[in-house]
Input
Amino acid sequence: MRIMNRFADEGYRNWLKGNEGLRELRARLSSFLENETRNFHECLSVKINTVLHGKTCKANCDIKSWIPKPKKLPALCKVCVPWRDEILDNHSAKGGPIHWNNSVPRLWPTEKWEVAKVYMPRGHRSHNSFKDFDIAALLNLMICCNHFRTFIEAQYILKVMEVRNSVMHSPDNSISKEDLEEHLRKIRNLGQALEPYVPELSTLSEAIDEFSEITDMQPRTSFAILQSARVDSRQRPRTDGEIIRDAEKWALTEKIESIIQRFEDGQRAGLKEEILALDKFLLTSHDLIRHVRPQLKKLSDIAAHFENLYVESVTRHRQTYDELLEEAETSGLLEKISSVCQRFEAGQWTGLKKEIKDILWMPMELALFL
Ligand SMILES: [Zn+2]
Output
């Protein structure tokens, strides 16, 4: 499925809109979460320092291997224990399994995100700034850390968590119109509820509508995308084609990262089917593959763990970028595209239709350069 076919499918456009709604929400939470994570950390520091009087961990406390079990707590030194107990005291799921090994206890007094990570799902040990955390991690932080109850009821966040799971696990990257409306309503509701504390959220609903409009207006050919790709994006506002391409890249990366994370967490139920569905999607959407090459390499390794699972899209695109570039240059493809774009912009359309047709029939691998 070339881009023109992908966008003819309403279910795919809806899937993209759902993903983008979550992305717009996440982007607008950045300053708020930075500030409130810092405020929460400072509150704990002040309280704990009345006991510790500035003492620091000398035992180099760390929790590398940890199996989360209800009511189980890590054994730590006398300096780290007050931190552990305060973190637990502010946890909404005190009785449940907690992923203490997401963080390094000796860093709790100095690093706010090391404390915040205890309120997140597993898999964030190597992450240490806002940009590293996906929407699921940030929503979990706001659900599990009682500090955020000052700003919003947990039910609003839980609803958006349902949206995230539904969008991420959609096997065929497709969402019905009814489901999308419900998803976007939940995202907007969270935005409205938090808006008094997060002014950036005042533009959330508008951004969701704008993206929806652009997505539905997507031309049914890939030529607009091809054209926009030839101009330096730093010199002008992004074109609709670039906005869409960026959204597709983000949505696909999130999806593959989610599969990788669940595999690494040992959550393998249904994963084989999701990988197969993703493979089918990529085989017909090869123009997206270059955006997710690092993730595809990991996906290939994961596929090897499942018996009789052949991931064709990954195998077919194992060629390196340099090899493909050399091939494209040798065949004169890049020059052809550039020439077609220039002539189109200059209004010299004679014979252009046939040339575009020839380019669109190029070998699949060379299409990566579009
Ligand atoms: Zn310690």
Remarks:
- Residues 57, 59, 61, 76-77, 79-80, 105-106 surround zinc ion (CB under 6 Å).
- Confidence is low (pLDDT under 50) at residues 220-233, 364-370.
